[in-house]
Write a structure and sequence with these properties.
It is a single chain. It is built from eight helices and nine strands. The chain has helices at 2-8, 25-37, 40-43, 54-60, 79-91, 110-126, 153-167, 188-194; strands spanning 14-16, 47-50, 69-73, 95-99, 101-102, 105-106, 134-137, 172-176, 197-200. Strand 2 (47-50), helix 4 and strand 3 (69-73) form a beta-alpha-beta unit. It starts with a helix and ends with a strand.
């Protein structure tokens, strides 16, 4: 019902995340993917499987009906695993999200975002991955927190997106806009309006 409602409201991708300590995430997600594969109103849009655990993504991507998106992989665990996982994803026919995250942690400045995305892009392309299969997430962090070092977070994300589009041909950019709504607690109109994700083509 939730997936159908999201599509009726204009969603072009359905993101499924079942990371929860009270769930057997892998079996629950596979069960859900089987259910929605039988629903024409849902199966008509691409499915994104979303988890912080690679073993869940690795298994669940095989149950996505049609071409989907795997969210996400990163350089956090090193280059070899990063390339291996990317190849596994594309061998199953899917695109994937690359987080701006490396062995030193998550990128929080324009310089770090572009450095990591540049490194990841050329590692992937030089190992046979099509650029059109790559969707970068340069990290949207909370804004308007009142903390001085956070003042440039929004600008850094926008500028990193611009840089990726100009310098990493055919790659796309995704961002979790809900992350920036946390600074507007109590303002339900703002929070509801911003609780979404977007994809730059």
């Amino acid at each position: 019902q939730i997936a159908k409602k999201q599509i009726e409201n204009g969603a072009q991708i359905i993101d499924i995340n079942m990371d929860d300590g009270l769930l057997d995430s892998k079996s629950e997600m596979i069960h859900f993917l089987k259910l929605i594969a039988c629903e024409p109103d849902i199966a008509k849009v691409p499915i994104m499987v979303d988890s912080s655990k690679w073993d869940i993504l690795s298994e669940c991507m095989r149950w996505i009906p049609g071409r989907g998106i795997v969210n996400s992989i990163s350089l956090k665990d090193g280059e070899s695993l990063f390339i291996e996982r990317a190849k596994e994803i594309v061998s199953n026919g899917h695109a994937f999200v690359v987080m701006a995250f490396d062995e030193d942690g998550q990128a929080d400045t324009f310089e770090r975002k572009t450095e990591i995305c540049h490194r990841a892009y050329w590692l992937l392309v030089e190992n046979g991955i099509m650029p059109s299969d790559i969707i970068f997430d340069p990290n949207i962090f909370a804004i308007a927190t009142g903390i001085e070092e956070h003042n440039n977070y929004a600008v850094d994300f926008i500028e990193a997106t611009r840089w990726i589009k100009e310098n990493l041909p055919h790659a796309r950019v995704s961002g979790g806009v809900s992350n920036i709504s946390f600074s507007f607690r109590g303002n339900n109109i703002v929070r509801e309006a911003m609780h979404s994700a977007f994809l730059f083509h």
